[in-house]
Amino acid sequence: MNQQIYLTVDRLEVNIFPNRDAMGEAAGQAVAARMKELLKEKREIFMVFGAAPSQNEFLDTLSRSPGIDWKKVIAFHLDEYVGLPQTAPQSFAFFLLKRLFERVLPGQVHYLNGMAQDLKAECRRYASLFNDHPFDIACIGIGENGHIAFNDPPVADFNDPEPVKVVELDPASRQQQVHDGCFSNLEDVPRKAMTLTIPTLFGAKFICCAVPAPTKAQAVRDTLEGPIATDCPATILRRHSNAVLFLDHDSAKLVHSPKR
Questions:
Q1: 206-225 as b/e, with b when 16 or more CB fall inside 10 Å?
Q2: H/E stretch holding 63
Q3: Which of 173, 169, 207 is closest to 191 using CA atoms?
Q4: What CA–CA distance (Å, rounded) separates 76 from 82?
Q5: Which of 25, 1, 7 is nearest to 210 (CA)?
Q6: In degrees, to the nearest 5, what angle opens at C-alpha 78 toward C-alphas 193 and 237?
Q7: N or C: which end of the chain has fewer CB within 10 A?
Q8: How far apart are CA 174 and CA 187, in angstroms?
Q9: Residue 200 φ then ψ, to 5°
Q10: Which candidate, 73, 59, 46, 39, places its Cα nearest to that of 137?
């Protein structure tokens, strides 16, 4: 596949690119353009970012995009491991700090504290920072088991009453962290995390979902071709009125007969 392919599945716009670099560049440019539009009319915008190697090309493009007044951006992250300090290289806060926040210097950055003594109180604290401000832009990925943020199939709830919650991680999610090279073995991967819930993410006005690599091919196929259900949490994206899924050739290889 040498050309870009566009298709729509239910309400979800899907863009398929020949390779991972092209996918990341397109996703970064799309978010940069949306940020510039919003900043013309708003004093500040609320954004949330996913932290994973799958986001590297997207984050690199976004960090190099000119003309964005990052001082007007209030930034959050999707999830965080329980029991890891922010300074741990495997923490999602550290990942985003190094990959994006140090480079662009947002006006505010709010982190989930994985070392909090009272995890439920930490979830409430974090939610209080955005409860009155639905996210303008959510930048997310999809896990190998179809999760969005750490809403794995066993704990995903399309009508979750909590904006942020503590979850037990699905073994597939933990194994993915080893596949990604974030941890050397499964025993090192934390068993719990805090995550923004699906209604919180779905409430974002624009969702950019970047999903490269062959390891995500089955999850992508399930997302686009399976029933909309928590068995594959990412399927809910097909109901969002303003979401775009960015794929590369490898992650889209199991999608049946995409139309040009």
A1: bbbbbbbbeebbbbbbbbbe
A2: helix 56-63
A3: 169
A4: 17
A5: 25
A6: 115
A7: C
A8: 9
A9: -65, -45
A10: 46
pLDDT digits (tens, 9 = 90+) for 50-95: 999 999 999 999 999 999 999 999 999 999 999 999 999 999 999 9
Q: Calculate the alpha carbon distances from 13 to 8, 9, 208 in Å.
A: 5, 7, 10
3-state percent helix, strand, coil for the chain, nearest multiple of 5:
35, 20, 45
Structure tokens that stand for 203 in this block: 């409430």
Type of residue at 82: V
In 10 A of CB 96, how many CB atoms?
A: 22
| Nearest CA among 20, 56, 55, 216 for reference residue 138 | 55
CA 15 to CA 102: how far, in whole Å?
29
- Reduce the DSSP state of residue 70 to 3 states and report it: helix
Specify the 3-state DSSP secondary structure of 245.
strand
For residue 181, give both structure tokens: 């090279």
Q: 259 pLDDT exceeds 70?
A: no
**8-state DSSP, 131:** T
